[in-house]
Amino acid sequence: LMSEFQTALSAVITKPELFDLKAEYVGKKGKVSSILKSLKDATNEERKTVGAKTNTIKEAILKAIDEKVALIEIEEINAKLEKNWQDITLNDIIKENGLNAAGYHPVTLVQREIEDIFISMGFEILDGPHIEDEFHNFEALNIPKNHPARDMQDTFWFKDMEHLLRTHTSTIQVRGMESHKPPFKFVGPGKVFRCETMDASHEMVFHQLEGMMVGENISTANLIFFMKKLLSEIFKSDINVRLRPGFFPFVEPGFELDIECLICKGKGCSVCKQVGWVELLPCGMTHPKVLEAGGIDTTKYNGFAFGLGLDRLVMMRYMIDDIRHIHSGDLRFSEQFKEY
Ligand code: PHE
């Protein structure tokens, strides 16, 4: 019986075939069962020896079937891999044939790089909606109605005057506090919208990368450590930095972290408005009212937040002298980044 089974097994290729074979030999109405059933009329002695032997065979068959299942599964996986492989040399083939290969947008490139830096420091990456309500964009961030700080951010309102296009990624701070229990740390990159007059350093749609860390005994020293780490990882060289007081209702104290304009080397140009410095990284210690609005126990926890200006960073990084290039859709601009 065993050798007959083995011959049959070696002919099996697919799982359904294997299951049929299993039924034929060790199923309820299978060959092994019928041998065991036939022992009904046998002598005690026969029943003992034949029964034991048949059971050994049954176990051997089951074991062989299990092994075959594993083998078939491996083959299935290999077949899938064979079918779904990707040709990573495809870009070269496209180029050799003078075709137009795709590339990443510089904002995407820089955003991913920064995400990696923060992931390596244990931060989570969060997202949030572009269309927001007043609460998440203003109120929860300690910017009540009629507060002059609302004028700092010219807002695109919806007709209902309750919804708006988020003016900053600080909305992600609020959403992060709502969904997380301290301690936590996360960054949230994304597009933001302001009804601004456009010039070399202002766009109506631009990008920020928000960051927040909440825990016990967080200090300005922690904030400065992470900001320094971020800048040194991005620029990989010494750059001139200055920290000055900055006002944002959601932080206290608040800072403006500027870097020396890399486009004009601090001499003054249209990007830095002739001052030689670029406001890159506003930040500060999170205001207790903001933590409270986010449901955080302020007797136990505090934190910091920052809002990196991604477009300006991209501009400094790749020496782009006008922010309007970023959304221009001009292929002559985008194609320069293919090699990165
Ligand atoms: N949300 C602020 C802005 O867009 C930047 C900021 C974020 C400042 C976090 C401090 C802390 O202008």
UniProtKB/TrEMBL annotation:
All residue ranges annotated as the Aminoacyl-transfer RNA synthetases class-II family profile domain in the record: 102-316
The keyword Metal-binding belongs to this UniProt entry's keyword annotation: yes
PROSITE patterns, sorted: AA_TRNA_LIGASE_II
Metal-binding recorded as keyword: yes
InterPro entries referenced in this protein's UniProt entry, alphabetically: aa-tRNA-synth_II, aa-tRNA-synth_II/BPL/LPL, Phe-tRNA-synth_IIc_asu, Phe-tRNA_ligase_II_N, Phe_tRNA_ligase_alpha1_bac, Phenylalanyl-tRNA_Synthase, tRNA-bd_arm
Catalytic activity: tRNA(Phe) + L-phenylalanine + ATP = L-phenylalanyl-tRNA(Phe) + AMP + diphosphate + H(+)
Cofactor(s), by name: Mg(2+)
GO annotations of cellular component type: cytoplasm
Amino acids binding Mg(2+): 252
GO biological process per UniProt: phenylalanyl-tRNA aminoacylation
EC number: 6.1.1.20
UniProt enzyme class: ligase
Major localization listed first in the record, in broad terms: cytoplasm
Binding note for cofactor: Binds 2 magnesium ions per tetramer.
Pfam families, alphabetized: Phe_tRNA-synt_N, tRNA-synt_2d
CDD domains, per the entry: PheRS_alpha_core (cd00496)
Subcellular location(s) of the protein: Cytoplasm
Keywords tagged on the record: Aminoacyl-tRNA synthetase, ATP-binding, Cytoplasm, Ligase, Magnesium, Metal-binding, Nucleotide-binding, Protein biosynthesis
Annotated GO MF terms: ATP binding; magnesium ion binding; phenylalanine-tRNA ligase activity; tRNA binding
Assembly and interaction partners: Tetramer of two alpha and two beta subunits.
Similarity comment: Belongs to the class-II aminoacyl-tRNA synthetase family. Phe-tRNA synthetase alpha subunit type 1 subfamily.
Official protein name in the record: Phenylalanine--tRNA ligase alpha subunit
Source organism of this protein record: Thiospirochaeta perfilievii
Gene name, Swiss-Prot/TrEMBL: pheS
